[in-house]
Each structure stands twice: as structure tokens, then as C-alpha cells.
Amino acid sequence: MATTMTLNPVQRRVQRVAEQMDAAGADVLLATSPSAIAYLADLNIRSFTAPGTVLVLGPGGNTTLLASEADQPKIAASGYRGLTDFWSLGQDAEERRESVLRMHLSGLPSSARVAAERGALREGAIAAEPILDAAMRIKDDDEIRRLRAAADLADIGYTAVVDRMTPELRVYEIVRNVDRSLRRAGGGEFWSPLEDAAGVTRAGYYPAGSIATLLGRHEETGVLDPSQPLPFALYPLSENYTGAAGTTIVFETPGPLLRSLADALSDATETALAAIRPGIRADEVFAIHRQALQGTVSPDRLDPIIGYSLGTGLGRPLLSATSEEVLEPGMALSVRTAITREQGPGIAFQTTVLVTETGNERLNIVPLRLIELH
Amino acid sequence: MTPALSTATPTVTLTAGAKMPLIGFGTHPLRGQEATDAILQALDLGYRSVDTATRYQNQDAVGAALRQTSIPREELFITTKLPPDAVGFERKTLEQSLEALGTDYVDLWLMHWPPGGSPGAGSWKEFIRAREEGLVRAIGVSNYQLRLLDALKRETGEYPEVAQLQWSPVYYSERYLTACRERGIVVGAHSPLRSARLEDPVLTEIARAHDATPTQVIIRWDVQHGVAVVPKSAHRERMLSNLDVMRFTLTEDEMKAIDGLSELE
């Protein structure tokens, strides 16, 4: 007699990855990126002390987490229920990590095919990224619920930045305001979009000189320049799913050039957003955006990508000139448009949209226009 | 309905003539049906002042309550607020508020935060214009320092009628209160209970002496200072309790003792 088993949200996601592994001919998958591990294990490794965490997804959907013993307490506190193995601390930690990983793979049949993300690549391995991308492509109801909560947190972070913003604030004070608001709203974790496969947040600028970097908590002087635009973005996490929202502040009435650029970008962003619907190709949305900006700004000042798949992190680039992917209901996108300037920070707008049966739903309230605080 | 409580709620007359109840119902962070239900319940218990804001994303829920209540619009006092990111979009934002609230006017329109820490004189001129056109009956600000109030007067010739800020015994400022009185500005208290230390012995002892709760003591303390207060609760008993503060009076010594809980310099 056939039995039916109700899968929990993580098991459903693991099942989707397993299906894609079957299709790709992989028996084992080595996940190293924070977004992949969050997807497969509901575990946020972004705050881990040591780099190099690997999640092994084996036959039957079993997972084994390989991590530094430095992160053992965090894993124990996280509620992760799969198997674990740890490498010890020390100067040769990297070698011990490799040894632990080899040991886990050595038990596999010699015919087993391994798929691996970049952080655990080995000879003959299949690239795991396309497998994960395919599994993560369409969001289920639980994922959409988490994305909505994350978008709400991004909006709360946005108001924490904008409502309390003054030119005299230091970067750490803005971070504190955001942090406090997010924690009061039940959030508390956020991340930078610039992270390597091992989950280490690196310093970065979005665009150059943006205060988004303050939200990634990297080192800088922390002094704002009130004469310059201040683009910023926030990436709060809710149950390991991410919000992504941002806009650009000015502290004085913008000059005609800045205003015209910002208005053009704002209009082009709204035009692109309006075009997002099931059945349209990603490159068509990109072309609509570019068409709307034609004659207003040099193309080399525009981002070559204006949309990314969104889930447990910012996923693959989606809205670009070369993406022929057809949008479908259940896809979540972070739409991010920007104009760089020759001197000083540029202008950027970012919001999250969900492709619905009839069009799309914008999940953020963040206005996609220049925010004039004067 | 309990009109006895409603009629007992004191009011203050603002500069341009609007009468504002000193106790109102705060709606943040309620949204949707929960907000509508809570507001209807509050109105039923005798509240006549409802405090919302564009930022709260609940003006539609307030509007739903206004449509459902049998209380005439002119007996109600509706406050909403302009977010600081609406500089240059003041009229449009007000129109969106009016549409969501389902009303032709709001009784009090506040600038929610000083935009970028500036007085926001450009926006304030739009506020004055909206009052002149009858779209709002009174205008004010929220989270403004004294120097910003004076800057508004200097740049536009008009003081706000109300200055709302985070206000509780912990955040009490005699200087701010006195300065506002001198300028004809009514102080409004937001987050009056969240920032208070309800277990403070000064409050609990005074509460015991009046057979009241520390929360009621704080609200009564606000009222006796002439401060308009907007406590929020989604619970009927607490809503009623927050409104039922006119049955006792704090003595001068008790007022001073509560003032002394301030942790501001």
C-alpha cells in the first residue's frame, strides 16, 4: 500500500534539489554558498566564525553539515536536525576541512557523481549552481510567505534610515537605527550582497560611495557627504529568506542634471516593473528598461543586469540583455537599477517583485525615486 | 456605547480653532481588519480621537472604521502624518490619505519627522496651504526639536499647532513643555507607555493611592500637563482603562514626583 508523507518546508526544498540532481545525473551535492545551505538546511552560515562550511546532500535526501568546531554552538542552537561533522581549529584548519570532506566522499560508490559549488569544487564534479538555480526558480507558498516577511523588514529598515536620517549622522548610527528597528520587528539578521562562496561578507560599494556598504558593516570612516546623493540598500533576512530594497537620498534640492537622471531612471524602472508578467522573456524586460532610458544617459553608465532571482540570497542574474528565460508565476526578483556618475556616488533603486498569474506584485513600499530630505 | 467617558475626555483648543481631545487612540502598528476592529471598539468605548500616519500603512483600515461607525464625522478627531520621504509630494500624499480615510478633511496633519533633520520649510508651506484650503483643520509636527520649531516660524511665519514627540516620564522635558506653551504649541505624546518604566516605585505608589494602574497614572499626568496622549491597545479592557483617568486627580507633589523620573539631562 502506498503511503503519503507530509513534507515540511525544508524537505520540500530538498526534494526539489534532489529532482534536479537526478535530471543532471548527480548523486551527491556539495553546497557551500550561504544561500544554498540556507535553502537546504534552513541554516544561516553568514554569521559563522570560520569559512568553509559544506553541506553534503546525499542520496535519499540526507544532509550532513561539515563545519569548523568553532561554529558547533551556533549549529546546535540553530535547530539543524541533520548529521554533522567538524574539523578542529588551528593553523592547518583548511587541510583538516579537506580531510573531513574527503572522508565523507570516500564512502560513496566509485560510480557516484558529485555536483559541487565553487567552494568545494573537485576534479570531475558537475557544477552544482545550475542544479540549485533550477530548484530555487519557482517559490512555494512557504517561501513566498518568508519573502513577504523579509520585504516587510526591508521596508522597516528603509524607514529607519530615512525617518531618522540627518547629514550629521555617522554610518554606525544609521546601522544602529536599522538594527534596532529590525530587531523590534522580529528580525535582526541582515547581510551584504557581496559575499564569497564561503559566506564571508566583503567590503563593497553599491554603487561606488553608496551608504549601502554601511549596512554591510564594513570598515569606513562613517562620515556622510551631504552634498552627494546617498544610495543605499538593505538585505534583511526573515527565516533565512532575504528582503532587498533600496533607494537614493539627497539632502538638498537636486540640480537639474541629477534630477533629470533620477527622474529618467525612476520612470524607466517603473516601466520595466510594469512589464514583468508571466510569459515575457527576461531580455525583453531589460530591453524595455534600456529603451526608456535611451537618449538620457550613456549606456556605459548603466548596469548590465537589472534583476536577480531572489530567495535565500540574491541568486543568478536574471534581467539582462542576454537572458532568454521566460518569467513564470512564483518567481521572485530583486529589481535593481542604477546609474553611475563620473564623480561621486550614483543613483540606485531596488525593490522586490513576485511574478503572479496575471502580472506582478511589488513587495516593498520603498519609493523608487530620489528621496529629498530637506 | 459609553458616551459618559467620551464627554469626560478633556479637549484643548488649537491655534486655528480645532478642538483636540487630550486622549486619543494610537493605531500603530495595527493593520487591516485588526486595526478596524480595534478602532471601532475604541470609538464604542468613548474615544473620539484616532491617530494614524501614512507610514503606518493602516489608513485604509481607519477609513473602514470611519465608514462603519455611527458617530458623526464632526465628532471625531483624525490625525495623520506626512512621511519625510514625501518632500515635494505633500499634496499628493495628503490626497492619498484623504482617499484612504474616506474623508474630506483631517483634523490634524503632522510632519512625521523633520526631513533629513531640517525644518522642512518647503513642506510646511504646503501644510499651511492645505489648512487654508480646509483640507486639514490643524497642522503640526512630530519628532521636532525646539530649534526646528523656531526655524519653521522664522522661515514661514507660522508655528506648528501641535508638536508630537516620544514622551513619557522617562522622556519628560520641562524645558520643551514650557517653550511650547510660550509658543502656543500643544505637546503631543507618542509611545507614552512603551518608553515608560511602569514598575517604577514612584508610579506604583501613586497608582495605589488612587486605586489606578501606573499606565492610568501616566495618562492622567499627561492630561494634567495639557499634553495630548495617544496610547495604543488592541485589548478592550486596556482601551477602557486608558480612557478612564478622569475619576482621579494627581496632586502637585505627585506631578512633581513623576516629572522627576525624567532621564533627560
How would you characterize this protein structure?
- The complex is a heterodimer of chains A (374) and B (265).
- Chain A is an alpha+beta fold and 374 residues long.
- Chain A has two domains: 9-136, Creatinase/prolidase N-terminal domain (Creatine Amidinohydrolase, Chain A, domain 1); 141-372, Creatinase/methionine aminopeptidase superfamily (Creatine Amidinohydrolase, Alpha-Beta Complex), CATH 3.90.230.
- Helix content of chain A is 34%, strand content 21%.
- Chain A contains ten helices and 17 strands.
- Chain A has helices spanning 9-24, 34-41, 72-78, 93-106, 129-136, 141-163, 171-184, 212-215, 256-275, 282-293, and strands spanning 28-31, 54-57, 63-68, 83-87, 114-116, 126-127, 189-190, 230-234, 236-238, 241-242, 245-250, 305-310, 314-320, 332-339, 347-355, 360-362, 370-372.
- In chain A, the strands form four sheets. In chain A, strands 4-3-2-1-5-6 form a six-stranded mixed β-sheet. Chain A has a five-stranded antiparallel β-sheet with strand order 13-12-14-15-16, sandwiched between helices.
- In chain A, a hairpin with a 4-residue loop joins strand 15 (347-355) and strand 16 (360-362).
- In chain A, helix 1 (9-24) crosses helix 5 (129-136) and helix 6 (141-163) packs across helix 7.
- The longest helix of chain A is centred in the middle third of the chain and has 23 residues, at 141-163.
- Chain B has 265 residues and is an alpha/beta fold.
- In chain B, helix 3 runs parallel beside helix 4 and helix 8 crosses helix 9.
- The longest helix of chain B has 14 residues, at 32-45.
- Chain B is globular and about 50 Å long.
- Chains A and B meet through helix 6 of A and loops of B.
